[in-house]
Amino acid sequence: MSAKVLERFPAGAPRGSWPAEEYAAARRAAGEPATVVMDLSSDAFLVVVERPEEDGRAA
């Protein structure tokens, strides 16, 4: 599996603000299985969608 990054949010959001979670919830409401993950190296929250890796075979 691989993941496609839909959006990136800095980890320093104001207290009580969860912009990455709100964005992911909106994407889920639209039918996209979005998840929030933390990218420690860039200190950011990423909203991602897991995608199956393509192996080049025709279906």
Structure at a glance:
The chain is an alpha+beta fold. Helices cover about 20% and strands about 40% of the residues.
Low-confidence spans: pLDDT under 50, at least 5 residues? Answer: none
| Biggest pleated-sheet summary | 3 strands, antiparallel
Helix content: 10-25%
Tally of DSSP β-strands: 3
Helices, by number, come to 1
Q: Spatial order of the strands in the main sheet?
A: 1-3-2
> Strand percentage, roughly?
35-45%
First-last Cα distance: 17 Å
Radius of gyration: 14 Å
Q: Could you say which overall geometry the principal axes of the C-alpha atoms support?
A: flat
Q: What string gives the helices and strands in order?
A: EHEE
Keywords:
single chain; 59 residues; alpha+beta; 3 strands; 19% helix; 39% strand
Structure description:
10% of the residues are buried. The protein has one helix at residues 19-29; strands at residues 2-10, 34-39, 44-51. It is of the alpha+beta class and 59 residues long. The protein is built from 1 helix and 3 strands; from the N terminus they run E-H-E-E. The mean pLDDT is 88. A 3-stranded antiparallel β-sheet has the order 1-3-2, covered by helices on one side. Helices cover 19% and strands 39% of the residues. Strand 2 (34-39) and strand 3 (44-51) form a beta hairpin.
